[in-house]
Amino acid sequence: MSSSRSPDRKLKPVTIDAASAVAYLAHALSDAVFALPNTPESILNLLLTWSDQKEKNRDGSAVQFLHVKNPTATLPTDIAAVKGTNLSVFLDADLLIKVVPSLYQLASSAITPSPRPLAVFYANASSISSAHASLPVLAHITPFAVLFSAESSAQEARDVASIAHFIVRDTTVPAVVLRSLGGPNLFQPVEERAFPQVHGSSRKFAGSSDVVLESFAHASSSLGVEQKFFEYVGSASPSHVIVFAGVLPHEVEEAVHHLVQSAPRKSPLHLIGVIRSRVFRPWSGKDLIQALPKSTKHVAVLEVSRVGHPTSHFGPLFLDVAATLHSEENAPAAVVEARLKVDGNSILYAKTIEKLFHDFIVESRGPRSASFFETFADAVDVPHGATVGIPIPLTANESDVDGPYISVLSQFFKERLHLTNVVDEETVTKPGSDGLSAEFGLGRHLAEIQGRERFIMALHQFVSSNAYLPAGLADAIREYVKTPESNVEHAVASGKQALQAIEAAVKQSSSLPEPVVHGLKNLLPDAKSFLGSTPAARWLLGGDRLAYDIGSSGVHHVIASKSNVKILVLDTQPYAEKKRGDNRKKDIGLYAMTYGGVYVASVALHASYAGVVRALQEADEFDGPAVVLAYSPRQAIGSSGLVKGGGGVAATASLAALKETKLAIDEGLWPLYRWKPGKATSDGEDLEEPIFTLDSEKLRGELNEFLERNQYLSMVANAEPEFSTAVGSSIEKELKDEAEAKIRSAYDQLVAGLNVTPVLILYGSDGGNAASVAKKVAAEARQRGLKPKVSVMDDFSVEDLARHKDVLFVVSTAGQGEFPGNSRELWKGLQQATPASAEHLSQLRYSVFAMGDSHYWPLPEDAHYFCKSGKDLDARLAALGARRLYACGIGDDRAADGYMTGYREWIPEVWTVLGVGGVEVSDAAAAAAAPSDDAIKTASNFLRGTIAPGLEDTSTGALSELDTKITKFHGIYQQDDRDLRDARARAGLEKAFSFMVRVRVPGGVATPQQWIAVDDISNSRANGTIKLTTRQAFQFHGIVKRNLKRAIQEINQALMDTIAACGDVNRNVMCNPNPHSTAVHAQVLEFTRKFSDHLTPRTSAYHEIWLDKKVVATSEDVEPIYGKTYLPRKFKVAVAVPPNNDVDVFAHDLGYIAIAEGDRLIGFNVTVGGGMGMTHGMKTTYPRLGDILGFCTVEQAVAVGEQVVTVQRDFGDRTNRKHARLKYTIDDRGVEWFKGEVEKRLGYKLLPAKQYKLTSNADRYGWIEGPKVGGQPTWSYGLFVQNGRVKDTHERSLKTGLRELAVLLEKTKAEFRLSPNQNLVIANIPGSLRASVDALLARYQLENGRLSGLRLNSMACVALPTCALAMAESERYLPDLVGKIETLLEEQGLRDDAITIRMTGCPNGCARPQIAEIAFVGKAPGTYNMYLGGGHNGERLNKIYKESVTEEEIIRALQPIIKDYAGSKVDGEHFGDFVIRKGYVKATIRGKDFHDV
User: Fold this and answer.
1) Closest-CA residue to 372 (of 306, 316, 299)
2) Could you give the count of Cα atoms lying within 13 Å of 903 in the half-sphere of its Cβ?
3) What phi, psi does 1077 have (nearest 5°)?
4) Of the listed 1067, 1184, 1209, 1436, which one is catalytic?
5) Which is nearest to 1035 in space by CA: 1021, 1127, 259, 1194?
6) 1062 catalytic residue (yes or no)
7) What angle, 0 to 180 degrees and rounded to 10, lies between the N-to-C axes of helices 701-709 and 588-595?
8) What is the pLDDT of residues 781-796, one digit of tens each?
9) What is the DSSP letter of 753?
10) Which phi and psi (to 5°) does residue 358 adopt?
């Protein structure tokens, strides 16, 4: 068939996306266009618009448009009814199987000509795996032309469409263009190309496939694109080639090109290539042979399918390739199928292509029996810089990242939520689903809005056209009409009032005029629907692909609609990718703010749940569209369920996402903010100012420019005075670099003018020992006449070292031979340097003192970890040409005098080489430079130090090092966020300093008013969470220095304090919060508070510094119990009320076991010498349970405790803080000596201990009935709080619910009691309020639910990211580990068995793990020592079972033990007793035996 049509309508010379390019061309070349179900909205909208506007084709003829609803039933007749010759059909690839009859009809018509349209079918697959699933259908519909289109190029999409239309016109063969919509929809410039001239009748199809192939070649040549049937990219002489369907984007070829160019010449990856198949049908074997390089030895055919989904192995493309090559004499010896398996969230990176070829090469070297190999995309670990081009989405499922946000939406809006386009697995795989498009969801929302607007119009017309209405009806309707939906409460109230008025009027219709009655009857059905319902919260949910194409995506349509529709856009780009930048992604928030009239917020659930809820609330209250950007970085989860993190350390997905979120926020890559646009006032003249609120410290540059351009930055800066100094890390780094350059210059000039030898002392230290040694070296150097300078290693670069002649390094060892956090950057620089690039180091003289613990990793194969960092540094400096002053010194914590043994051997030799070995030095002077803790306490003037002026210093977020030792006595620890430490160091910023504040709560009892105050302080001063500690105290985390003083003041205003919550004093006194006898508890609590007050330091420094008490010049502080140096170490006290031992009374320095007769407390059995702390590998440190000294009366108890404290004050070890606790004093001198010393100071002897029985150290949960008050019972509710962290999550609104509970109980005598197991007891609830409390517990999902016995008995310390001593995760990790152990227990029917499990990030024992039945103590990131056999009642220590185990090893070790326990435990036997009886571990009789296995 010939054609005289002129070239097609000319496209506008603007950028366009692939979908639009295809739609334009199809419309221009067709007489009819069909859209079948699931046609992409961007195409459907264009077709609908052109149809409405009567747009004509390139001939000037009308184009028939038909939206086919039921193609299975009507498509053949619809095609037959087409008026014209040329037809384009858009359909979902999943529908191909359903329209097979129609395709066969067209195909047969091609052979036997009859009047029918020449059709091109555009089959749109939602993902690459979906496209591959369509190949079996397309392979068997003959004769048919099947072309592949790669959607990463708009130009190529249009060219392929042109070729398909030409083939159809030239040969009369129907064509299918298979397109994959998985990639981002990019706008690109499209070049105009004239449509090829169609041949005469001789070109008609004659039953030969060659005619179709010739037509393809002619069209390609005419268009000037020279597309081939098969196109090769790769090595000039490859050995391994993969053939793939042409639906994959061209980033595949880019990845292969990169691999070939970057791989070493001898690497197999240097000899690889790929072949893209552009024409699937008809198949051209000869063109494949021509495209395949002669050197090829191995061929693989790529087949992509989803994990868990059925797939046809040895698909049609593989069979075609195999048949072709097997028919050739010199063809490659082997053809295999490469099966790429993808899960719901997989991204095909360049690294995945590398993995494919790696597996291909490995397979080709193995036995020849295999005809396929599998590669799993989700198992690929993608390092920095590994991606090439755009990540290629393999499926559309994003449920793992959107799930938490959907939960928050559901929790917040409940039945109001209308969420129309949730992307889940169902919508991806189910044909006919409407869930993947924001445009579809918007359409549904707009339809609802328009329906309400029509109803309101009808109401308005009814009121205005009827003068005689019943009383109140018109007013009620007018009130509803004028109320916007965003005012939910008023809309509900006015709607109900209007509905009642209408229903009342209908009932009295007999007395009303006929027009009014008729109008009411017409209104009533819609009135019940609209007036009787709560206004909907209309939300859409989109992925970060929307950022690639804002203009034609759902975002633009939402904004432009100006309707009350909100969209939540998830950005799932991992931090590493975000840091590298992607100029294809657009800033949706900036776009929306610039557009105007849109509420915009940027949030992150892993950073602040409250911030997400606040943004949702503000968006809901805004009368107009809203865009909420939400960060949820995707994680590549391996088969173990863990995510590979930095340094190869595995972490759970939620923990990895949390860390990435913090990094992105801290570096300004994901700022948190809220923007409420201004609007005109009622008179239309004045404008309300827009409100911009910055919820994080930093903004990206583009947002900064927008705010400055609109003069809003000054407003933000005024509201947040600190903002201006934190706007850009680049400015801060420049200033810092400039300042350091000036300092170095001044220092060099000073040294040059003095007749002294400079020496630079650099250290790497996590725990502080290396820093102390470095300062000691500097003190000695100064006395010997040298000019020392001390700094952390990361303050210097490799180039900086060349400016110094003599450098001494002091380096401790972290984890498995790793460098401490403040030395890694310099070490990386030295690793990357070469002798040529670092030739300036040839003049450097150096010596290294390496510090470590030779017993930390006891296995022989792990011995090389000892002092590894220091040894590596010594060797690397030598390799780069630097000269050793003296050999590397070794400081071993296990030596006779600890690391000082090696230090005393190393340092004299260094001084000798430097020529100052003969100078006498004073040990006292050196000690003054590195003062002991007692010296610091003495010099602090009763805990004042220089804290007050330090708080006024705004140049840093930290206090001085010496002051941080004193602030502990005030209940304050200086910390930094270790998740951000490395990133901030690389950026030249100081650490992210903040403060942990611990609030004393003697006995753990707080009032509802105090709970509300604590909640307020956590929100306004801290990180928005509350930590319930293992010692019944409140802890706030993340308090920055500028908020510190005000936080302390607000704590004191709530009648609480922080003094002595930490430090070398008696700390918070613990007491059982949930006793069986309320009367006894009241007496015990009274003693607890009395004893706590008695041992509180008497210094007035606390009130002067924090509460602004005036200093009285004539007064002098006196500490009658502690003295100027206070205690050698911390001191802990607990009071147990049998039969409960939830306080773990034997784990503390001093314990009281309450002895009662009925409801009367008569006295206490006194215990001394407990303590959990120890040091890994140092057997001279160990946990210990206390000994019972005897019995004392209630009246004697305070005096007994005081004398126990004074004996420890006078005899405790003040020279070695690792040996300074009371437990060592008693073990060194004997318990009988200690008892005698206490009794001597008391002036009387203690009585023999009385009988008691402890049954459990667990909490009691749920409702517990208490005594009656006024004839009504009181109640207590034991509430499980996982690891003591009170916060709202998408699963449980714990923090909000507890605040509401406190408000409810504020005017009662109820109490919030903190449990020693980090849980909460709401006590003394009036019986009249129990139903209300139950309702609140249910509303906020606070009930304990069906929790396992293991989880209810779990406990963890804070550990990372804030604790400076943590070696591994604890609080953030234990819940996930418990979940995996729960699975083992459930398999054996042990879900409800109460087993204590505890975890700490270091061996200091804050969560008292050494008395748990199962315990894990952090040793290195992802690595723990595993202990078994603690007593269920807290009266026996556990024993080490395995050292240095990972999660996988933990599960493998516990599985057989739990199975054995289920099968052979005796009735009533606890797990800890069982493992000892069965010989898994030995019983620990006393602390000194703890390390004996």
Assistant:
1) 299
2) 22
3) -120, 115
4) 1067
5) 1021
6) no
7) 10
8) 988 889 899 999 988 8
9) T
10) -60, -50
Residue environment code for 1133-1156, b if the CB has 16+ CB neighbours within 10 A, otherwise e: bbbbbbebbbbbbbbbbbbbbbbb
The active-site residue out of 867, 888, 1192, 1402 is 1402
* Sequence-distant (≥ 6) Cβ neighbours of residue 1466 within 8 angstroms: none
Interior angle at CA 465, CA 461 and CA 468, nearest 5: 125
Amino acid at 779: A
- The answer to whether residue 1402 is catalytic is yes
867 is catalytic: no
Q: What 8-state DSSP symbol labels residue 608?
A: -
Helix (H, G, I), strand (E, B) or coil at 1334: helix
Give catalytic status of residue 1406 as yes or no. yes
With 0-12 / 13-18 / 19 or more C-beta atoms within 10 angstroms meaning exposed / middle / buried, residue 1302 is buried
- At residue 936's C-alpha, the angle toward residues 935 and 937, to 5°, is 90
Active-site hit among 278, 1130, 1235, 1439: 1130
Q: Which residue has the tokens 């004191």?
A: 1052
- Which one is catalytic: 634, 998, 1223, 1436? 998
Q: Which of 1406, 1408, 1436, 1439 is catalytic?
A: 1406
Element holding 110 (H helix, E strand): helix 100-111
User: 1071: buried, middle or exposed (CB in 10 Å: 19+, 13-18, 0-12)?
Assistant: buried
For 1244-1289, write each residue's pLDDT tens digit: 999 999 999 999 999 999 999 988 888 888 999 999 999 999 999 8
Annotation marks residue 676 as catalytic: no
733 is catalytic: no
Looking at 179, 784, 1045, 1132, which residue is catalytic? 1132
Give tens-digit pLDDT for 601-652.
Answer: 999 988 888 888 889 999 998 989 999 999 988 776 555 556 655 444 556 7
Decide if 1132 is catalytic.
Answer: yes
Q: pLDDT tier at 1212 (50, 70, 90 boundaries)?
A: very high
867, 888, 1062, 1357: the active-site residue? 1357
Looking at 757-875, which runs of residues are DSSP E strands?
Answer: 757-764, 786-792, 806-811, 845-852
Bridge partners, residue 644, by sequence: 650
The Cα 447–Cα 420 span in angstroms is: 12
Which residues have a Cβ under 8 Å from the Cβ of 566 and sit 6 or more positions away? 537, 538, 539, 540, 558, 599, 619, 620, 625, 626, 627, 628
Amino acid, single-letter form, for residue 1317: N
Q: Is 1192 a catalytic residue?
A: no
Per the residue annotation, which of 1041, 1363, 1372, 1398 is the catalytic one? Answer: 1363
